[in-house]
Design brief:
The protein has 19 helices and 5 strands. With about 400 residues, it is of the alpha/beta class. The protein has 3 domains: about 160 residues, P-loop containing nucleotide triphosphate hydrolases (Rossmann fold), CATH 3.40.50; about 160 residues, no CATH class; about 60 residues, no CATH class. The radius of gyration is 26 Å and the shape is flat.
Length: about 400
């Protein structure tokens, strides 16, 4: 268990254990327990990491509700929202009649993400579901001032969450240290808590990243932390990263950037040849980058105590030769992401072909791709056999053209 992500390991399972925002907790529990509630949905809003999702999970656990969760930023269209939300709010499961399960709660996280440029009726679909729901609907958002959310706010009870107070975060960090047998200087915990700016999740992640078995956590260990900037884009991160003067500056930047680890790793790799024109320096930088990649692989989704080594190698890659820096145009997003975007239609076409082969030949999609497709390609190039084979597999003309011209996958 020592390699588990602490923010999950110590996530509260009872409402009383969710730290901070006492007034919001009271309002939420009153709404959830009121069967005559005037509004069937509640919208919890406030900065990330302050306990919105944690409170919902704790309340469901305490009051025996089953949570059906949906990330609204990934499900923007009316059709997608309706497909997921309608069954959760319209029907009563057989297990509701047991003494353990009271029913469903539909939890829609990141509701502010549904109101982006790609929204295709998602907000209106949610409003219709709220009007006809038989189950409580809970939504969470960081920002509710988005124009497209105005109609949604009118049909919801709004509950605001504030940044968690620093003393409460320090108490939570002390408790985790005691349970993990981590020795610490109080000022170190204080620095971590202040750095989090009220974000409990970030504070716990920083604590885990800085803690080492058998070593006392000191104020010196927290010097690499800087106040978090929630709005640092990929472009801004790359701009500052490649212009750093030393390892400490690079470490500070990486610590407050919220760009995804894998995206950042790919973007740095793409731009490294533009940063270092000297091949020896470039090779040295890539060596550090490859070591960072190794640690990212070892971290996976649970070994977060290795994150410091991932950051350290990235920082060293940025500071191989700080004096040689000259501004340049960045490649962003990463080349791999661009490639996947442009080849999506081809990959979709190949998947469709493999599914058809699988149905007719009773094999998996993987077997169809690796074993059948190469032979099928050659057979379709023989015009005499092509029509009968394509008809048997129910291939479209587009799929036949794709297969005959296929060089590799």
């Amino acid at each position: 268990m020592k390699n588990d992500l602490w923010v999950e390991k110590y996530r509260p399972t009872l409402i009383k254990d969710v730290i901070g925002n006492e007034e919001a907790k009271i309002l939420f529990v009153e709404w959830l327990g009121n069967k005559r509630r005037t509004k069937k949905a509640v919208l919890l809003y406030g900065p990330p990491g302050v306990g919105k999702t944690t409170l919902v999970n704790a309340a469901a656990n305490e009051y025996n509700f089953r949570i059906i969760e949906m990330n609204a930023s990934d499900t923007r269209s009316e059709k997608a929202v309706t497909r997921i939300a309608n069954p959760a709010t319209s029907f009563t499961g057989l297990d509701k009649f047991s003494s353990e399960i009271k029913g469903n709660i539909l939890f829609m996280d990141e509701i502010d993400g549904i109101a982006g440029n790609e929204d295709r009726g998602g907000v209106n679909a949610i409003i219709k579901i709220i009007e006809n729901t038989r189950a409580p609907i809970i939504m969470a958002a960081n920002d509710v001032e988005i124009e497209k959310l105005r109609p949604l706010k009118k049909v919801c009870t709004l509950i605001r969450f504030q940044p968690t107070r620093i003393p409460l975060i320090i108490m939570a960090l002390k408790s985790i240290c005691e349970q993990e047998h981590v020795k610490y200087e109080f000022v170190a915990l204080e620095k971590i808590a202040v750095n989090s700016q009220g974000d409990v999740r970030s504070a716990i992640n920083d604590l885990q990243g800085l803690s080492e078995e058998g070593k006392t956590l000191t104020e010196q260990d927290t010097l690499a932390l800087s106040l978090r900037n929630k709005d640092v884009s990929m472009y801004d991160t790359l701009k500052e990263y490649f212009a750093v003067k030393n390892i400490a500056d690079a470490a500070n930047l990486l610590n407050y950037s919220t760009v995804e680890y894998d995206d950042l790793l790919m973007a740095i790799g793409d731009n490294m040849p533009k940063r270092y024109t000297d091949t020896v320096k470039l090779a040295e930088a890539y060596d550090f980058l490859s070591q960072a990649d190794v640690f990212r692989g070892r971290i996976g989704i649970e070994h977060w105590h290795l994150l410091k080594y991932f950051y350290n190698n990235l920082a060293q890659a940025a500071s191989v030769d700080p004096e040689s820096y000259k501004p340049f145009e960045f490649i962003s997003p990463p080349i791999r992401v661009i490639t996947l975007f442009w080849t999506k239609s081809k990959r979709t076409l190949l998947t469709s072909i493999c599914m058809k082969i699988g149905v007719q030949c009773h094999v998996s999609k993987y077997e169809a791709k690796m074993i059948f497709v190469p032979y099928l390609r050659l057979m379709l190039q023989q015009r005499k056999k092509a029509n009968a084979l394509a008809e048997w597999l129910k291939l479209t003309p587009e799929e036949v053209t794709f297969l005959t011209g296929l060089k590799m996958f």
